[in-house]
Write a structure and sequence with these properties.
The complex is a heterodimer of chains A (about 325) and B (about 525). Chain A has 14 helices and no strands. By secondary structure, chain A is mostly helical. Chain A has one domain: MetI-like fold (Orthogonal Bundle). Chain B folds into 2 domains: about 30-200 and about 390-430, 3-Layer(aba) Sandwich (D-Maltodextrin-Binding Protein, domain 2), CATH 3.40.190; about 200-385 and about 455-520, D-Maltodextrin-Binding Protein, domain 2 (3-Layer(aba) Sandwich). In chain B, a hairpin with a 2-residue loop joins strand 6 (about 190) and strand 7. The chains are: A mainly alpha (about 325), B alpha+beta (about 525).
Chain lengths: ~325, ~525
């Protein structure tokens, strides 16, 4: 008897839901159902389909030749990765871009947010709007504008550099400069990230800065020991989102080279461009599906590493993750 | 209680509305075979109500299906437009008119195979996404019946997907003997005629008269066999080498020196003698002589000698003789950001006839007042004028190819439609429409050309048709898209990289292509 009572104390019986609660749940689910149906039909099912297709030779133009080919697509992908084939080269371009773009955009966005968080800065709303505005411009339009801006002959940047007697790189026509050019283009859209940082900065209690000042901390020490730890969850979020963004990079490179050949000289053949090319130009939808799953795996591993290491550098003031 | 009932009703209504809007493409779409007996003739839905990629939605599903219109059963033939020309607003209007006229005529005198009227359903999609959309439709067993107009390259991306036209024409009693047999040969794949000839766009030299006048130079010749006359009266055969010399005289730097003079500064060039716009390696080769990257055995990669000469001519024109802009200069604002011939800073440009669309009287930097067209130069005594083609095809997956052919012959016979595409119609009787349309389009913009009864000499374009290379410059290659990608990657380096060894370049092309040919499915 005593044992039964103890058990009931630990696991109290779940009260049966009333008909009112059931009806309310049903209504809630109904409101959610467009999203749920969309998730299943447009995301989950295509994901499952692409996973299945990755083990087939599915060709868009010749669907009748469809057959399961086991791990052939993955074996081809592995061979391209280790022999510097299109998959390996495009992954290299994407990683190279990510290594340049992520630190630069995060640094710039944080820098701008710190500037906009200064008490002495006048006209903050104006600057905030100005820095955010490029986010509202469609990517295709901004890429075309940047193409003109970075033209090595008549682009504004070239003319400014030439006015100071400096040579101008031939950004999008030089394989060595094309990816840095795209990184530069990427800084154009940091307004969103900057706003997130700004929100994080505004949430840091001022008492912490005052206490640090009393303890003799200078501006750099305050930034390192107060600001950074306090905004580390925001930093974590922005790094994660940036990694996902790099893994999805496509539009700008495609606008610059609609043939998706990664011109000049394959230097802008991003992973997704290669994937698109395999699927839609060469009709190898099975192989393209395998490529897509590799990217998902890479992003998942990167995210896992980020989450695993976050305990060491992300500080949650509330103590909860 | 009432509020709860309302909430639930609202939820259900929202779900139904969302699902309905997601599932229906347009409000006027009718389900094939199940249309109401007295429904009005459905009209194609234009831009405003369709997705950005779709300009005009088809009113019914796949071809071969039937639908009831005004109580009469019709067989549906779907016409897909977007792979090539046909997506400009004026062209869409013309296409819709052709479709409406055809459908109206079918209601009066049906010509379907079973005596049933054919209902022509128009689907127009943006050119940029047309290939992807068509591939998806074909893979989903939802293929359109008629596809076109489309160029040779656009068709080649779907090699194996087009129906043999010959038996359809034979059954319909359609006569192909009125067409140039060379053109028919170019529309055949492995000896099978799988394209319906429609219009051609020969290449020729567009030239800016003002820049020639300014330099005191005579205009290029406009009839085959005519020599070029230099200012001192001497004459030269109209060869690619003559073009090189002439173009150098028309290439000018900031200080006014031309490219033949000492002290010419190519880094500060303000005018170029020649442009090869939207340059393409096989086209450049075919400008010199007919050829192919694949040998007669259909599997060995090769680089014809005449094509090597052509690539060398082009490369030296950029980096040694400085009469062609490099890629950076081509994309600069000086040359209208990638549209050099219309910039007013280029004296001559080798282009297809459809470029008439893009000659414009004013760019931000300079105004073109007068321009005209000249014949192609010769190489080793022979002229070669690659041509672009507008072709119609019938999908192999069409469920009703014979009715599709019937509809196609109607479309092809409409001169008013072919004129809006801008090509030279292959049926001579349509030339009047063509002249009317082209001159009507250019006259308001170039009054100086048309003053005192003047005109662009379009006879040049018609003459150039005879000099089409035997092998089309976009003809099929094994592993077509991959092969084209690979040689194009090498070709594009010519415009951006100085100091290339052209023998090495040719070898790179052959090596890359052989690998692609070997991997051909």
């Amino acid at each position: 008897m005593a044992i039964t009572e103890d058990r009931m104390a630990v696991h109290p019986p779940v009260p049966r839901s009333t008909s009112l609660e059931r009806r309310e749940n049903l209504t809630g689910l109904m409101f959610l159902s467009p999203w749920l149906i969309g998730l299943v039909v447009f995301t989950a099912l295509p994901m499952i389909a692409s996973f299945v297709l990755s083990f087939t030779n599915f060709n868009l133009l010749h669907p009748a030749t469809f057959k399961f080919i086991g791990l052939d697509n993955y074996s081809r992908m592995w061979s391209e990765l280790i022999n510097g084939g299109a998959a390996g080269a495009s992954l290299g371009v994407t990683v190279r871009y990510g290594l340049m773009a992520i630190p630069l955009t995060i640094g710039l966005a944080l820098g701008l947010a710190l500037l906009l968080n200064q008490k002495l800065l006048a006209g903050k709303p104006v600057f905030r709007t100005l820095f955010f505005m490029p986010v509202l411009i469609p990517l295709v339009a901004s890429t075309i504008v940047w193409q003109g801006f970075l033209n090595g002959s008549t682009g504004w940047l070239a003319q400014i550099l030439n006015a100071f007697g400096l040579p101008s790189p031939d950004w999008f026509n030089d394989p060595a400069w094309a990816v840095p050019g795209l990184v530069l283009l990427g800084t154009w859209g940091i307004g969103n990230m900057m706003l997130i940082f700004l929100a994080g900065l505004q949430g840091v209690p001022t008492e912490l800065y005052e206490a640090a000042k009393i303890d003799g901390a200078g501006p750099l020490a305050r930034f390192r020991n107060v600001t950074l730890p306090m905004i580390s969850p925001v930093l974590f979020y922005n790094v994660l989102i940036s990694i996902i963004g790099v893994s999805q990079y496509f539009t700008q490179a495609y606008v610059l080279d609609p043939g998706a050949n990664g011109n000049p000289g394959g230097s802008t053949l991003f992973y997704n461009l290669d994937l698109y090319k395999e699927g839609w130009s060469y009709n190898n939808m099975g192989y393209a599906s395998a490529l897509a799953w590799l990217m998902l795996a890479i992003v998942a591993v990167a995210a896992l590493i980020l989450f695993r290491t976050s305990a060491r550098w992300v500080f949650y003031a509330g103590g909860e993750r | 209680m009432i509020r709860r009932g309302f909430t639930r009703f609202a939820a259900v209504a929202a779900v139904v509305a969302l699902a309905a809007s997601a599932c229906s493409s347009t409000a006027t779409t009718q389900s094939p075979t199940a249309g109401p007996a007295n429904a009005a003739t459905p009209a194609p839905t234009a831009m405003a109500t369709t997705s950005p990629a779709t300009l005009v939605s088809p009113v019914a599903g796949g071809g071969g299906q039937t639908m009831v219109i005004n109580g009469v059963k019709h067989v549906v033939v779907r016409w897909f437009v977007g792979l090539g020309s046909g997506t400009n607003p004026s062209q869409i209007t013309a296409e819709q008119k052709v479709v409406n006229d055809f459908n109206a005529a079918q209601d009066k005198a049906p010509t379907g195979t079973n005596g049933m009227p054919i209902f022509l359903s128009l689907e127009i999609v943006q050119n940029t996404t047309a290939t992807d959309i068509l591939k998806t439709e074909m893979a989903a067993n939802n293929s359109p019946d008629i596809v076109g107009p489309v160029g040779v390259k656009g068709r080649a991306a779907f090699v194996g997907s087009w129906a043999d036209i010959t038996p359809l024409a034979a059954k319909a009693g359609y006569d192909f003997s009125k067409y140039d047999q060379n053109i028919l040969k170019q529309l055949s794949t492995n000896g099978v005629l799988d394209g319906f000839p429609y219009a051609v766009y020969p290449s020729m030299i567009f030239f800016n008269k003002d820049l020639f006048d300014e330099a005191g130079l005579k205009y290029p010749p406009q009839t085959a066999g005519t020599q070029y006359v230099w200012p001192d009266g001497t004459k030269s055969d109209w060869t690619w080498d003559t073009v090189r010399k002439l173009a150098m005289k028309l290439s000018v730097d900031k200080s006014g020196k031309d490219a033949t003079q000492a002290g010419f500064d190519p880094k500060n060039q303000t005018q170029f003698g020649f442009d090869f716009m939207w340059s393409e390696g096989r086209r450049m080769g075919s400008d010199f002589a007919s050829g192919s990257f694949v040998a007669a055995d259909g599997k060995t990669a090769q680089f014809p000698d005449a094509w090597k000469a052509a690539w060398n001519w082009y490369y030296n024109g950029i980096w040694t003789d400085h009469f062609i802009a490099n890629t950076t200069e081509e994309n600069s604002t000086l040359l209208a950001s990638g549209n050099p011939p219309s910039s007013g800073h280029v004296a001559m440009a080798e282009m297809f006839q459809w470029y008439d669309c893009c000659m414009t009287a004013s760019t931000p930097s300079k105004t073109i007042q007068k321009w005209d067209v000249a014949i192609q130069p010769t190489y080793n005594g022979a002229m070669s004028a690659p041509l672009d083609m507008d072709v119609f095809s019938i999908a192999k997956a069409s469920k009703d190819p014979q009715d599709a052919f019937t509809a196609l012959t109607y479309i092809a016979a409409r001169g008013d439609l072919s004129a809006t595409y801008g090509g030279i119609p292959l049926v001579g009787s349509q030339l009047d429409f063509y002249h009317q349309y082209i001159d009507g389009m250019l006259k308001p913009e170039f009054p100086q050309i048309y003053a005192k009864g003047g005109s662009i000499d379009w006879q040049v374009a018609i003459d150039m048709e005879k000099y089409a290379p035997a092998i089309h410059h976009e003809a099929a290659l094994p592993n077509y898209v991959k092969s084209m990608d690979d040689y194009s990657k090498i070709w594009t380096t010519l415009g951006s990289t100085q100091g290339l060894n052209m023998d090495t370049v040719a070898q790179q092309v052959v090596t890359a292509l052989q690998a692609d040919f070997n991997a051909a499915p």
